[in-house]
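Re-run with default settings, no changes from the original entry. Doing this only to confirm the output is reproducible before filing.
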Amino acid sequence: MTTSRLRGSLVTAVTWVLVLAFFFPVAWMVFTAFKPERQAATMPPTFAPDLTLSGFQAVFDRDMLPYLINSLSASVGSTLLVLVLAVPAAYALSIRPIVKVRDALFFFISTRFMPVAASIIPVYLLLQSVGGLDNITWLTILYIGVNLPIAVWMMRSFLAEVPRELIEAAQLDGARLGTEIFRVVLPIVMPGIAAAGLICFIFAWNEFFLANLLTAQVARTTPPFLTSFVDGRGQFLAVLSAAATVAIVPVVIAGWIAQKQLVRGLAMGAIK
């Protein structure tokens, strides 16, 4: 009994150490955002600075709002369309499996094997030929292609946990395919949809490579905007931390809204 308690205490202590280790950089970034620029990069660090909002004022003086709107448009739009496409695809691959389902699943995940850097030149030339550079709609379409394989794989594992007896009972009652999906299956896997949607939203919100190379001004998103605070004069850490703090707010809000569904969704499919 003593050994079991000691092991449990050790696991708890290690867990808290890992949590603090992951959370500390974020907390330090938020703390630095309220420092004046002269105290942001001092060595040793200043733990009792003159707190100020000048960093946030400088961020919005640089007109950050349009970049936030672009990020929100691309992230929300791509996430919603990814879920619209991923749910029926995963339904066909799990509840109503198609022929050679493993080949189909491998095809989906194989689209993530190639690094984005290896395909950026043909993508750039294609968008240039159709007038899609610096266009938020085309950037959203690219995000859909990037996140769709992940959503399909996640949703398939969630849908595989739906009791077949419920579906068979609905079919015996004369439920059509639409009723079977929207009235029977979707309410059960809603936590999984929330989990997949949040992960796709975070991936799209944080995406830097495509947004940096395929946009200039009109469709520029928040991650490339953050790099503008590092130039030849040096790193403006206080202003950069303030901008990064503002940038993480939508993700934190989305996670807070979906937290109950997220916990249940991440647990679905983990243990049979």
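The two ends are 29 Å apart (CA to CA). The chain has a mean pLDDT of 85.
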